[in-house]
Design goal:
The chain is an alpha+beta fold and 72 residues long. The protein is 38% helix and 28% strand. Keywords: Bacterial flagellum biogenesis, Cytoplasm, Repressor, RNA-binding, Translation regulation.
Length: 72
């Protein structure tokens, strides 16, 4: 893991296409602005994990449904 220190309005560049900027600092919270191409999905980690879980459940239901349909 790379750990960087940034101050207000300073940025981090990832590759050519992604820029992360510290836009606000309020006590123990910071606000980050992320500029990236539209085809790159950006989510908070808890949202990303929820999407993965939902996709897993949907795939499981599809497999179960296929098995049921195959029996007939």
């Amino acid at each position: 893991m790379l750990v960087l220190t940034r101050k207000l309005n300073e940025t981090i560049q990832i590759g050519e296409d992604i820029e992360i900027k510290v836009v606000d600092i309020d006590g123990d919270q910071i606000k980050l602005g992320i500029s990236a191409p539209k085809h790159i999905e950006i989510h908070r980690k808890e949202i990303y994990l929820a999407i993965q879980e939902e996709n897993s459940r949907a795939a499981s239901v599809s497999n179960d449904l296929l098995k049921i349909l195959k029996k007939d």
